[in-house]
Each structure stands twice: as structure tokens, then as C-alpha cells.
């Protein structure tokens, strides 16, 4: 257990964000890549030594807005930055995660897709393919000017329908499998963190799939056909609006507390505990399937009462490696034995172990 202690604004979160970026090739804070680069600089560099199976590997990422991300392993360049995925495994909880419960469906879809990439790095390419096809199809819909295309235009739309249906099916297969695996872990984690027996639920909602969501192992061909049929039946409305209205990009991860929608009915404490339970469950799932990821907890204790702090500390103490941040050392539970580091602008210094 490592604790980073320091006032707000000195860079504690930047350290956790850097580890999280190595694990997912993305920041937990939505926004442009330019926000990751120091003002006035051209690029940001993340350099880390990771130990896996007793072997130390040096990872380097250069983030250059507008020119993508370049990576190196042990000083050797990798063809694609995504080749770094899987070397560092980490799960990060931050105050922004309250949006997983309170925010828009996009936040929950991003949570699922980010976790899917950590489980299966190839999923990143699948997601990127879907997003590229979606952009192309939307461009074609807008170019129709609100009227159904004829001739080659209609044939072209048919082609993009097929491409979107195939890519969408790949996304759905992994998302549905992930929700099925995650659901019992979220329920268990919530009960531990909240120290209660309130039932919580996690379900995948898709207007296209309907009852197919209940299938424990749906065939990709079934999923693709469902999306293809929906695209055909809704074509006139999509052409009129110039946007794709059906597909995985419109779905949601439905969270509930006591069988009520968590987004509208959960108290602040319940929402906070549920968001944290999603991350703890993710950590447990990844640990069960491979090397245990680093658990990163950013300013988690400030929002919790004493009892819940103790519950979180107990969960964190069971992790192989955990890094927590706090503005005030007194917020850390007294029994939490951690290596303490004081963070100041431009420097980090070790303190006595508590």
C-alpha cells in the first residue's frame, strides 16, 4: 500500500492518471489529449518500470496531440501504441466516477469498453473499427439531404449497414459477456463497501436486442442480423435526421439499488458506493483472469464516513498493490499500513511508514 499525501493541485492525481493511461491508453478524465500535456510543451511522456512474472520491463509513451501516441518497450519502438496494452494492468477509481451512476449512458458505455480492452486488448481495434464505420455511415446519411438515396447511393448504404452490423455484433458479444461476469461481483463488492444487504443490479439495455440480452451466449450472427434488420426498418427516419439511431453506441448499462434506477433514486452515499463497487468488481474480475492489476484510489476517503472508510481500507489492503491519494493524512484509516509519500509541486519525498 502506497499513500500519496499533499494539498489539492500538486499533482497526486496526475501520477495515478499516468499509471491508468499505461493500462488503458486513455485518461479517466474525459477531454482532449491536449489537456494531458503541460501548457507550453509539445508532448507529454510517461515512463514506467513494470514487473510482471519477475521480469522488469521499461515502458515509455509519448503523447503528442494531433500526432497520436508513440510507445517503446525496453527502449525498442512498438509498431502500434496498443501493443503496450496488457503489460501494465490497473483499475482506477476517482471522484469523476460518480458520473458512472449519475451521468449519461455514454459514461457507462465507456466504462464497459475500457474494461473490455483490459481483458482483451484486441477489443480496442474492434471498437475503433466500429467508430470508424459509424462515422462513415453518418457522413453518408447527412449527404443524402433528408431524402432516401437511389441507385448506387442506396447500394452504398446497404454496404455500410452490413459493415456496421458485423462490427456492432463483435462489440455486443464482449459487452454482454462482461456484464454477465461483472454483475455478481458488483453486488458482492457493494455489500462489502456499504456494509449493508441492499440489493443492487447491473443489466445491459439495448433497444435493438430486446430479449436477446437475456441469452447467456448469443451468436454474433444473431446479433448482427438484429442490427441489420433495425437499420433497414429505421432507414427513412435515419436519412431524415442524418444520423445512425440504432446500435451499440445507443445502449446503456442499467444500474439499480433496491430495484430502483440508481441514477435517479440512489442517495449520494449509495451512488458513491455503487461507483466504487463497479471499480472494485473490475479489479476482482481482472485479477481472477490473469495477473492482479494495481488498484488506484484517488481521494476516495474524503467523501466517506468513518465506517465506510474502514470498509474501503479493508478492500484495498487485500490488493497485491494499491496506491491511494489524500489531501489530509488524517483521512486515512488508522490501521491502514502504507508507505507514505508527501507530494509537493515538482517533488515527492518519502515519509515514515505508518
Count of runs of 4 or more consecutive helical residues: 10
Shape: globular
Number of domains: 2
Give the N-terminus to C-terminus distance in angstroms. 11 Å
CATH H-level homologous superfamily name of the largest domain: RecF/RecN/SMC, N-terminal domain
- Strand order across the largest sheet: 6-10-11-1-12-13
Could you name the CATH class of the largest domain? Mainly Alpha
Order of helices and strands: EHEEEEEHHHHEHHEEHHEHEEE
Major sheet, described briefly?
6 strands, mixed
Please state the structural category.
Answer: alpha/beta
What name does CATH use for the topology of the largest domain?
Glutathione S-transferase Yfyf (Class Pi), Chain A, domain 2
Beta-strand content bin: 15-25%
Radius of gyration: 22 Å
How many β-strand stretches?
A: 13
- Uncertain stretches: none
Helix amount: 40-55%
CATH architecture of the largest domain: Up-down Bundle
Mean pLDDT: 90
Amino acid at each position: 500500500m502506497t499513500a500519496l499525501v499533499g494539498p489539492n493541485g500538486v499533482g497526486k492525481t496526475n501520477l495515478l492518471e499516468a499509471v491508468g493511461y499505461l493500462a488503458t491508453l486513455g485518461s479517466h478524465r474525459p477531454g482532449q489529449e491536449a489537456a494531458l500535456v503541460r501548457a507550453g510543451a509539445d508532448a507529454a511522456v510517461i515512463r514506467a518500470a513494470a514487473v510482471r512474472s519477475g521480469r522488469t520491463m521499461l515502458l515509455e509513451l509519448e503523447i503528442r496531440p494531433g500526432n497520436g501516441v508513440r510507445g517503446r518497450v525496453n527502449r525498442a519502438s512498438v509498431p502500434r501504441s496498443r501493443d503496450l496494452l496488457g503489460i501494465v494492468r490497473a483499475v482506477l477509481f476517482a471522484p469523476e466516477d460518480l458520473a458512472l451512476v449519475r451521468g449519461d449512458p455514454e459514461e457507462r458505455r465507456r466504462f464497459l469498453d475500457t474494461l473490455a480492452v483490459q481483458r482483451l486488448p484486441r477489443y480496442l481495434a474492434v471498437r475503433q473499427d466500429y467508430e470508424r464505420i459509424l462515422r462513415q455511415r453518418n457522413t453518408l446519411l447527412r449527404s443524402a439531404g433528408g431524402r432516401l438515396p437511389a441507385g448506387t447511393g442506396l447500394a452504398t448504404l446497404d454496404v455500410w449497414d452490413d459493415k456496421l452490423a458485423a462490427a456492432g455484433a463483435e462489440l455486443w458479444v464482449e459487452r454482454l459477456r462482461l456484464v454477465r461476469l461483472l454483475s455478481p461481483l458488483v453486488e458482492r463488492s457493494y455489500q462489502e463497501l456499504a456494509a449493508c444487504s441492499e440489493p443492487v443490479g447491473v443489466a445491459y439495455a439495448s433497444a435493438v436486442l430486446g430479449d436477446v440480452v437475456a441469452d447467456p451466449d448469443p451468436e454474433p450472427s444473431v446479433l448482427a442480423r438484429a442490427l441489420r434488420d433495425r437499420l433497414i426498418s429505421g432507414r427513412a427516419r435515419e436519412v431524415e435526421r442524418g444520423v445512425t439511431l440504432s446500435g451499440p453506441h445507443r445502449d446503456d448499462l442499467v444500474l439499480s439499488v433496491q430495484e430502483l434506477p440508481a441514477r435517479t433514486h440512489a442517495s449520494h452515499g449509495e451512488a458513491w458506493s455503487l461507483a466504487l463497487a463497479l471499480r472494485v468488481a473490475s479489479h476482482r474480475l481482472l485479477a481472477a483472469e490473469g495477473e492482479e492489476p494495481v488498484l488506484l484510489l484517488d481521494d476516495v476517503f474524503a467523501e466517506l464516513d468513518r465506517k465506510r472508510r474502514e470498509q474501503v481500507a479493508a478492500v484495498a489492503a487485500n490488493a497485491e498493490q494499491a496506491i491511494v491519494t489524500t489531501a489530509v493524512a488524517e483521512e486515512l484509516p488508522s490501521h491502514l499500513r502504507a508507505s507514505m509519500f508527501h507530494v509537493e509541486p515538482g517533488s515527492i519525498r518519502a515519509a515514515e511508514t505508518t
